[in-house]
Amino acid sequence: MRAKKQALLLDLDGTLLDTAPDMAAALNILLVEEQRAPLPFVQIRPVVSHGSVGLIRLAFGTLEDTERQRLVNRFLAIYRDALAVHSQMFAGFTALLQQVRNHNLRWGVVTNKPAWLTDPLMASLGLDTQADCIVSGDTVSERKPHPLPLLHAAQLIGLQPQDCLYVGDAERDIQAARAAGMSSLVALWGYIAHTDQPHAWQADGMINQPEQLHEWLFA
After folding, report:
1. CA 55/CA 49 separation, integer angstroms
2. What is the C-alpha to C-alpha distance for residues 165 and 146, in angstroms, rounded to an integer?
């Protein structure tokens, strides 16, 4: 029998929010600016969880540091200006988060996305005032897969790590949770490439849709 959890912590891109349409649009604008052909969405989507550096690598290949940083900066500027055009919560989360509240559980976000993007994105969807904590990629001195962001989130909501369940769609999410002493689940609806092997990430489970969190939180 699983121990009852008191908090649900979520990765942002590819777990709570479907941000791929807006990030893909920004990447393709950059490609056109650089006189390159846009990439199909199906090619971009699995890379979104790897952030701006991963997307620039996908679009432009191996680059020298200076050129890579130039493109990353330009990509982020384009993305910032159209941050929440099509981004939305994955289906099922509106009802799930209401049930989290109804059961007096806490929930929050732990993401590697920098706060200057995370905060306006959460605000645009009205989630900034609902979440009990928001830990961004620059909130503390380390980023996932380091456990510090998750430990900080637990501290913010006044709980022990073992009382929290963390859900993410990348191996770094599971590594961070395991190192923090939290239970973890792989969000299989997220941005997972066909070359990824989530069954080998040593999570406590894998779920295909947010509704399956019910048995982990409310059973």
Report:
1. 9
2. 16
Q: Which of 163, 103, 97 is nearest to 130 (CA)?
A: 97
Half-sphere exposure of 34 (CA within 13 A, CB side): 20
Residue type, position 86, single letter: H
Which tokens sit at 74? 């330009």
Q: Which of 11, 132, 163, 169 is catalytic?
A: 11
Q: Can you say whether residue 11 is alpha, beta or left, with left for phi > 0 and alpha for psi between -120 and 50 degrees?
A: beta
Across-strand partners of 142? Answer: none
Here the tokens at position 145 are: 């897969």
Q: How many residues does the chain have?
A: 219
Identify the pLDDT of residue 4. 80
Active site annotation includes 11: yes
pLDDT above 60: residue 1? no
- CA 11, CA 198: separation in Å to the nearest integer? 15
User: Contact, 189 vs 17, CB < 8 A?
Assistant: no
